[in-house]
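Thread: Newbie trying to understand structure tokens

Hi all, I'm a second-year student working on a class project, and my supervisor (Dr. K.) asked me to get a predicted structure for one chain before our next meeting. I've only ever worked with sequences, so writing a 3D structure as a token string is new to me. If someone could post the tokens and maybe explain what I'm looking at, I'd be very grateful. Here's the chain:
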Amino acid sequence: MNGRILALLILVSPAVLVPPPALADDVPLSVTEPIGVARRGEVVTGGIPVGPLGVKSTDELSVVDAAGRPAVARISPMVAAEDGTLQWALVDVLAPQTKANGTESWRLVKAAAKPAAAPGGVTVDRTADTLTLSNGVLRVTMSTKRFDLFDDVRLDADGDGKFADDERMLAADATTALTLVRGGDKAVYTTRDGRVDAVTLEDANDLRATVRIDGAYGNAKGETDWLKWTCRVTLWAGSPDVRVLYAVRNVNPRLIQQEQIRRAAVTLKLRPLTGRKGYLLGAGSVRMSQLSADEKDALKGSQWHTKVRLEQVGPPEAVLSRTHRQFYNLKNFEDAGYRVRHFQPSGRTPVADVGFACGGWVDLAGDNGGALLWLRSFTQDTPKRLDASADGTLALDVIPEYDGSEQPYYADGGYWLGDRSYRTWEFGVSFHARPTLTDADWAAFGGSFSAYCQPTAATASEAEATVARLANRLQLVANPQWYTRTGALWGPVLSTAEEADANKALGRTHEGPVRPQPAGAAATEFLHYENFHYRSEWDEPRDAIVEYLRTGIWDFHRRAQSFARNYRDLGVWRSDGLEMDKRSAGVNPKGAGAIPRWGKFCECHNYGAGLLDMWLITGDRSYRDAGLDWGYEQARDQKAWGGFGGRNWGRKMAAVLRAWYVTRDPKLEKFLLTYSCPPPRDEALRADGRALICGREMGSWMAGLTMHAVWHTYVALGDRMGNVQRDEYEDAIVGMARQVARYWFFPQYNGGPYYIEFDSPKVLNEVFKGVVKEAAKPGNVYANGGGDAYTVSCIDMMTRGYLLTGDPAILKQAVHFWECVNGKDKTVVSARLQDFEGMGAKDFWARQLFFALAHPRGDAAPPAAVADLAAEALGGGRVKLTWTAPADVGGKVARYQVKFAPLPMVDYDRYTYPDDHGKRWTWWAGYNVPGEPDPPAAGEAQSMIVADVPAGVRYFALRSRDDSANQSAISNVVKVEVK
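---
Reply by user tm_fold:
Sure, no problem. This is what the structure looks like when written as tokens:
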């Protein structure tokens, strides 16, 4: 298939459905502030697909504002094709000012231009022992030999462009090593006592720079053979914020090890605080109080503290015992809870507050400034603790000392880190040189008799805005039409305007395909200990990010990030094939009983494709590392998958496919072309029709995921296949679409998708007892409530068949299915659908249908069927075929598909197993042949010679497709005896 035809089919092409953007070399970019917090001078980042621009260097691209002026922007390469043409580029833009809930716009243009200079740009200075990042406001120095998180941090308090000794933000003797205490023997390991293996700059430019440091923990004895770590530190131009991504890694390739951690902590010690010292705390609401290390202050009353502690105390047993449906739907997880303790010189540690919905941050400062420390997902997942002390210490325990409580992953003296797992925490620090608390705040506090009180509204809102900025970096995106045109994200990205057009075509006024999803912190900050078996039916990072791009709803972005964080840590097996007590590496350590079965994905629910999508959109390389690791792991040994179409085949193949797309590794390409849809060669297998999905029987949920991988492999690699393999893929895709459209609506089918293997007419007829001749009846889908969300993929399977054939009957059935489960007949929707669907899954599987409805085909007429096919045996296994080239209305015939079989061939819809077994074959089961000629003008005579035809009686037929992917009917079938 030539590239143009492939593009027509995959992107739902300009010639068929999609009008191209007005300017081919002009990509619209925008950023929308999503949470009502105004931003000033924030660097916004986004991965943008750039394939249609045809450039091989980012020097050929530039970003301009609405007036056409060069923007302060930097462009870096991400993905390139084999010939060097860029497919994705990472764009950083400085947004001078973004209003709360406002939108800023730029354009990415194909033009070489000198970018505007970045005020306070990031610089990197590396010596033999240190690496220093500076951004005009902040200077951060890290050791590359004995790693502390920060060796030195300085803030340009007076704005003179220098970093003097009196502008040091950390104490001169401070150590900020990342510390672990091992369970069992309580041995202390730190990054400082360990080794540094690598220091890497990631996507560094003068707007943004990330330093990645990898190493192994060590103890005082110099032992470094326990766990490893990765730490990423990011600075942005002109910003006092630092982002840290800290991962503990259990990835010893030679051992199966379930490791126990008693404590994991990070400590920052600020320079000595002067004058009035106090803190703000992000608990249920913003609270303030004062700190003092002086024993005499203990006599002044309960307002004086040496330390304040914010700690998670949940989730209580009540949360873990909720019904499955509540659990899977992420309801009521604010119950995780927190408490605040104030420590005093007298030794009293009263509980001053208990509540839920904790912000998980503290700002500690004196009159000479201080720092705000924030941790993502503080009250979710396993316990955490945050201490602020009068001596300027900020201690963050991401795994607190084990106290014997029953928490997920905790048992027998600590937190269990499963084999081949990561545990990653994200926290941010915002440094400031001025006091946090104002005179007005202190005046209010002086009149209070409580341990703490609320600060002024201005102080609270400023602190909350800082936390919001750390937690919600703005996302740079293109518009949905651009993602559609590039075909870079699993097919069309349906815009809301196109969605409205599709609904209009359906005669509907309510929304679809998108559905409102649960909102709020609990739903969008995913819990690691949740049972992943059912929340991983679909690739949530992929589905949610696509929904965000097409709708602009920020909760989808947050949801995508939270699922991706979980996949990054727990969803990637990194398995080396070893077993422990004949169990996989993801099972509980012997005797511990600490790691739930959902601590890892089960074998059949492994995903990785969405991780690479998250990297492409956000530029966060932690997702790239995990996604590639997973993709390569899956390509190592496909035999362990259970074969083509097995329980986990489609999910894993999608991960391999995305890894190939990112790397263009020829080894991965070979793997895909070998295993993604192997053409069957067993005539007995083909005789009962099972060949229509490459010889594999599967239930609908297997089929949906399998055909998803088959389709996108065909999309990505169709031009690299020979025509026989390409035709096998199309047979599989179209055959499955016709299978679903034909059988799904029988009342006897009863919507029972999990166990019925419905690709085989033989199996179907055994189940239905010969009733497959009955016409499909409307309204029968989910007739007795037996369906579940596995079947939402049927919508997509039918749509794909329509895209390859133009058959309106398939499209009609896809629409019928959607209406049955989402619109006109709500009584037939199974309750299980909500439990199993996953966030965004139904939307993902229906968007291609809605896109097709929004863009009706300009050419819907198939080529005429060939009626004069003739065959002549030439001897030596050769057969000469002759026919007259058919005509096409509205376009031109683009190519032929020729098949032979040992029995006469009929269209699949005319084949039934009881009547036809041993008498006829379906078209889909026939053998594809190589070397079909290109079609000439209509009416011209054509011929071809087919070689290597097995001896015996053979039946030949052909059909054609036009340049709009409309498929003709089967030609006349001719019989020939081959010698």
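A couple of things are worth pointing out once you decode it. Residues 723-743 form the longest helix (21 residues). The mean pLDDT is 79. Feel free to ask follow-ups in this thread.
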